[in-house]
Amino acid sequence: MKVSDILRVKGNTLYTITPDEPLARAIETMADKDIGSLVVMERGELVGMLTFREVILSIVKSGGVVGNTTVRSAMDDHPLTCTSETELDEVRRMMLERHARYMPAMDQRMLMGVISFYDVAKAVVDSQNFENRMLKAYIRDWPGGEEQQAGASPL
Q1: DSSP character string of 71-137
Q2: Domain limits, the chain
Q3: What's the pLDDT at 144?
Q4: What is the DSSP pairing of strand 37-42 with strand 16-17?
């Protein structure tokens, strides 16, 4: 399974912000949209990610006050990224190594979407559920299974 498979199911709604926006506005947007991250874009290019982790770190650093802080001062300016063709196993490994909960998917310099650790976990569970159903169907249709189910002796 690839990142493109997750993006296809997830849809293409993206929430972005510019680096010079007030952090307070970003927090408000994240709360209103019930999202854990914003992609930070400048002149059409990805320049960072703002997640609740960066927000919390920024607020703690400033003594509990958001004040006039900008997104630029709080964002991760070197976010972990992947491509649409990246395999899900690789994404899981990368996210676990960097403790990343959100990852922008890029195609060259174009943002294709953002996948979350939740999206990855859901895709894995859905895939396992499908595989389990197929295995159960295979076992149920096993040759000779009908005679044994009807009570016939194998010998």
Answers
A1: HHHHSBSS---EETT-BHHHHHHHHHHHT-SEEEEEETTEEEEEEEHHHHHHHHHHHHHHHHHHHHH
A2: 3-143
A3: 62
A4: parallel
Phi, psi of 65 (to 5 degrees): -120, 135
**Sign of the C-alpha dihedral computed for residues 20, 22, 23 and 29 taken in this order:** negative
Q: What is the dihedral of CA 80, 83, 87, 92, to 10 degrees?
A: 20
Type and span of the H or E element at 41:
strand 37-42
N- to C-terminal Cα separation, the chain? 44
pTM above 0.70, yes or no: yes
Q: Is the domain defined by 3-143 classed in CATH 3.10.580.10? A: yes
Residue pLDDT, tens place only, 81-121? 999 999 999 999 999 999 999 999 999 889 999 999 999 98
**Side-chain half-sphere of 79: how many Cα atoms within 13 Å?**
30
